[in-house]
Amino acid sequence: MKLKIFESDMGDCLLLEGDSGELMLCDGGMKASLKGHVRAELSKLRDAGRQLDLVYVSHVDNDHISGILQLLEDEAEWRVFDLHQANGDPIREPRIPRPPVIKGILHNAFRDQVRANNKEIENLLVASAPALYASAVPELIQAADEMQGIAAGIPEALKVSRLVSPDALDIPMNKPPGVADAATLLFAGQPGAEFVLGSMKFTLIGPTKKELASLAKGWNTWLRNNQAEVRTIRAELRQRIDDFSSGALTTSPYDLRDWNGIPDLKGVSAPNVASLMFMVEESGRRLLLTGDGQQDVILEGLKRTGFLDAGFVHIEALKVQHHGSENNMNEDFARRVSADHYVFCGNGSHHNPEIKVIDMVFASRLGKASVRALAPEAQNRDFHFWFSTTSEASPEGLERREIFAEVEEHVAHLETQSEGRLHLHFNNGAFSLLVI
């Protein structure tokens, strides 16, 4: 397997290629990074007569789905050109590179997950975020950041569904190769949870039907509970700030981390909990694609699918979940799931990847015995940290540039401390290439 790690702003965008040549695009990052870095590289595939066998969208957050929407919009523009050209109409050829043919898409569409109240949820998110930003309270601003990302992702997810529909681009959705009776939504235990793409075998780690049900219930409960509250948010904001100053405020009533209503998943929003996650196997080598999944959900999925029978697993490559956020990683996960290659996608936005998480992973390989990885294969073995960007890729003066520069400095220190065991890889261009 080969994995191209694209420059993808604060999001994820990876291109997986099997030994037999099949290709799967894993998330699309942000629109700007798709336009600036990914678009031209994907167009080269078309020029070479190659196609994307699958496009995989892990979940609806805009830092995963925005680039996919842009890719589909590019193809739609070219389809319009084809139609007019076939009719002999005068029309200028699009000035954008044409994407490769997309044979299928794996995506649990927002409309199918929620089934109702799509627009109401979007409107309420949009209405709530500005007042939270105005508070200048870090906890409320963090909630607003999550709201803004998902508020942007919802309409983009709906547009993706419309563009791939039979009366538009006509791209099959959730119909993996060789699976004739796949369900509308992909989840564990259903047809489509296992499939083969060329020389690669895919096993769906999550979500389960329970997690999808929790997501739908969470969205609609949140909407019902907050429709009244959003009308008084500005009046209540001052009181919350006062409470925060006195130490009485510990969480925001609008904080997305409470949407799913599952206590042991706090710290991770419901859309992230429902991420599509796959274990990919080829010739005895394994890659774990985690989206923005929560660590306990990932471990449960690995256990359910037999990968964690020994209580731990060592794999060749791990796409570190949720850009290296501390809400999605803990010491237990780092000990149970070890890898030769750890891929971090994030550019310092929202402080991701977080140094605390990097230190956890590092300690699981070279720390004291009580925190070391449990798999024997991880002992006395070199390991690699891959980063999707560099600090210099962000404009000067932006906080994210400074944060990522701190990451670069910190991991350079870890590399020295490792005495040759840790190897660092940064993406200085459109992509870096990991051979698994």
Describe what this molecule looks like in 3D.
- The protein is of the alpha/beta class.
- It has a single domain (2-435), classed as Metallo-beta-lactamase, Chain A (4-Layer Sandwich).
- The protein contains twelve helices and 14 strands.
- It is globular and about 70 Å long.
Summary of the model, kept short:
This protein is of the alpha/beta class and 436 residues long.
Note the topology.
Elements: E1 2-6, E2 14-17, E3 23-26, H1 31-47, E4 54-56, H2 62-86, E5 105-106, H3 110-114, H4 118-134, H5 138-164, E6 194-197, E7 200-206, H6 209-230, H7 233-246, H8 270-273, E8 277-282, E9 285-289, H9 295-304, E10 313-319, H10 331-336, E11 337-344, H11 355-366, E12 383-387, H12 399-417, E13 422-426, E14 431-435
Parallel strand pairs: 3-4, 4-5, 9-10, 10-11, 11-12, 12-13
Antiparallel strand pairs: 1-2, 1-14, 2-3, 6-7, 7-8, 8-9
Order of helices and strands: EEEHEHEHHHEEHHHEEHEHEHEHEE
- What is the name of the CATH topology? Metallo-beta-lactamase, Chain A
- What percentage of residues falls in helices of 4 or more residues? 40-55%
Q: What oligomeric arrangement do these chains adopt?
A: single chain
Q: Could you tell me the strand content as a percent range?
A: 15-25%
Outline, from the CA principal axes? globular
The chain-level structural class is alpha/beta
Regions with little confidence, pLDDT below 50 for 5+ residues: 230-238, 252-266
Number of strands: 14
Strand order of the largest sheet: 6-7-8-9-10-11-12-13
